[in-house]
Structures are given as structure tokens and as C-alpha cells.
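User: Before I run my own analysis I want an independent prediction to cross-check against. Here's the chain; please return only the C-alpha cells and, at the end, one sentence I can use as a sanity check.
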Amino acid sequence: MSEPMQAAPRPMLLNAFDMACVGHIQQGMWRHPRDRSAQYTRLSHWTELARLLERGLFDGLFLADVLGVYDVYGGTPDAALRGAAQVPLLDPTLLIPAMAAATSHLGFGVTCNLAYEPPYLFARRMSTLDHLTGGRIGWNIVTGYLDSAARALGYTAQMAHDDRYDLADEYMAAVYALWEGSWAEDAVRRDKAGGVYTDPTRVRRIHHHGAQYRLDAMHLCEPSPQRSPVLYQAGASERGRRFAALHAECVFVNGSTPEIVAALVADLRARAGARPIRALVGATVVVGRTAAEAQSMLADYAASADAEATLAHASASLGIDLARFDMDQPIEAAPGNAIQSNVTAMARIAGPAWTKRKLLEQSVLGSRQPPIVGDPAQVADALMQWMALADIDGFNLSRTVMPECLEAFIDLVVPILQERGAYKTAYASGTYREKLFGAGRLLDAPHPAAGYRMV
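Assistant: C-alpha cells:
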């Protein structure tokens, strides 16, 4: 009797995970002699990155962002400034049109904090990017977690964690109404002979009068290729998952084990019901031509890791001033107003009495994310095993030493994944949403945005 046929592996989605700064996730890698992250202020740095990712058939470039500085550690930003821990930092949205002009298929998921920008202005910015990229823009929806950002924008402190999500729900209603409900699909006629560019009867004003926002205006942009951008979200708290299940098309998950991630993804998909969600996990890869070469590279990279910058970054994301604790003193982690899922994850990984020493022992390359290290086949095995065990769709790959980390992945790992049928050999046609989901450039029911669309 013949062997039963095994199902083909799920096609892997890949984003490069980056930030418009010198030090992103793996703190200290900018100090490595071959790293070119300090060229981040040059436009050519970004257009070359975009071309590299498109050569590797990456689905997107996922750009993180924050609006404040990491000043929780020791009560000052000094450690973050010394170590370039996500400061200095450019506006990521201004980089995207140039990268889009340098590519044809690469998507762009950009992080924008909704807490400090009126929906009317933000909706125009996203529509503009969707037009200029030809329908390749996505939005990572965040509400922020830094009090330094709140102070920079004129507030004494940020809103409470769950209140920020209540604000976000109303914000989404306002931008959906602008993107989907202000202009009909046939509003723009471009009738030169008749002298009518837009049919006024097919454009309507949006009236939104909520607890936080008041809006009485038509959207300034004609319908863009996707109307609403592809929607990313990364909240893993109870309130964050409720928000993601309602709004997100793609969720970005950081997890310690495939089993923990599988439970989180299953919960999100159960909450979303019939609506499809793509789940991506954060991953860091160090790949060599041989396993020994990969281990040598890891040691070489680890020599540049910056412990102080790591603690500055961790203090901000955990909402705990780690400078107050000795190396082996148990960290007291009461519920706070930063990223609640990070505190829970740290206790789960290192135990309830975790210490700074345990955190730094985990942070081999300057972050709490343990790297996947090996030859091309070993790395491909690890990624495919993660997908099978955690029921995820792909990965957001964090950078180490740039650009060689991505060049090595594209040249060594991508061909192995393609040989195994686990990764595409060409881009599909269509918008970013169509590439990710296979059909439909617009958000369809049961997604709430569809209910706002003008017919």
C-alpha cells in the first residue's frame, strides 16, 4: 500500500521588522564593524533595503515606531541615547513613497499611534500612502505605551491601558467612515468633455459625534486602491485581543514557545469567527553556510550587544525601572500601564522571581528574543516547525547586523524553503491585501469597515 500523501506546507509569509532608527530590537548591533544601520538618514539606505526584500520575495517591510523616548530606566533617557535604543528616530511614513517607487510588489506595514492625531488628518495620510504605493500600504494600529510620548504631546501622562483601547474603537469608527463611506466607488468620473471630475451626488459628509471625537467633513481623498489599509495589530492583553479580533487582519505575536503562541492564536481566531486573520511571530535568525559558521557568527554578533541599552528598552516596554534593582534581586512586577503582555511573558519565561541577570542572560543579542541559529536547513526546519506547532502564517524577522543578516537569509534560507514548497517563487498580482489573502482588495463583511461603505 502506498504511503498517504502529506499535505503541502502552508506558504510562509515574511516581513522584515525594522524601524527608522539605529538600534531597533537587538540593542548594540550598530556597534558591529560591518553594520550599516547608522546610514538610516540616507534615503538610499531605505530604497536599497526595499529592493533587497523584493529580491527575496518578502511580503512586506513592517516598520515599528514610537513617539517618545525610553526614559523609565533610571528616570532619564541617557542610557537610550548612549546606546541608540530607538533614538534618534525618523518618521517612517515619509520613507515609504521612495521605497514604493523602487519596488513593484513589496508591502509596507507602518506603525502609527492613533492616540495623538485626529482621525481626519490620519485618514488622509493613509489614503495618500495607499495611492502612492499602488495599494501596498498597511497600518499597525497602536495606542502607545510611553508616558514620555504623552508629555511630548502636551499631556501629563497617557490614558489607562484599557481606556486607550476604548479610544481606539471610536477612532476606528471614524476612519472607517472616512475611508469607506465618504466617496462612492463611482464618484470620480474624470469626464473631460463634460467638465466633471467628481460627481457631487456620490460624495457625502461624515458626521461622527462620539465620546472622544467630533467630525463633520467629507474625506479629502478619492478612493484609494484598498480604501482601508491592511490592518495590523499586536496587542496580546485581554483587551488587546478583543480589539484585534474585531479589527485586525494580521496580528503580530511575540511568544516564548510555539505552544503559548498556538493558544494565543487559537483564541484570537475563535474571537474573530468567520473573519480570516493572519498571525505572524517575531523571530531573529543567524544563519551560516554551516552550523559551525552560524555559531561563530552568533558569538561575533553577541560581542556587540549592549546590556545598558537592553535594560533601557526593557524598562520602557515593561513599565518597570530596572535600575532600581540589583542584578539578582527579584523584580517586583505589579500590573502597570505599559505593555502588559510583556510583563506576563517575562514572568512566564524566567519565573515569577525573575531578575536583571536572568533577563540579560536571555538577551544574547541585546533583546529578550532568542535567536534561531544554524545552517540553512536547520533554520528552515525551525521556521517550518514553528508554523506547524503554533498554527501561524509567518514571521516578522528582526535585524541583527545590517544588511548582511537579510542578505544571508535571502541567499541561503529562502531557496531551501522554496525547494520544500513552503515559500512562494513569485509574487501574486494585486494589492497588499490581495497578496496576503488571495482575493478582494477591499475589506468585506463581517469586518466592521464594510458596514460603512457607501453604495
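Sanity check: Residues 1-5 have pLDDT under 50 and may be disordered.
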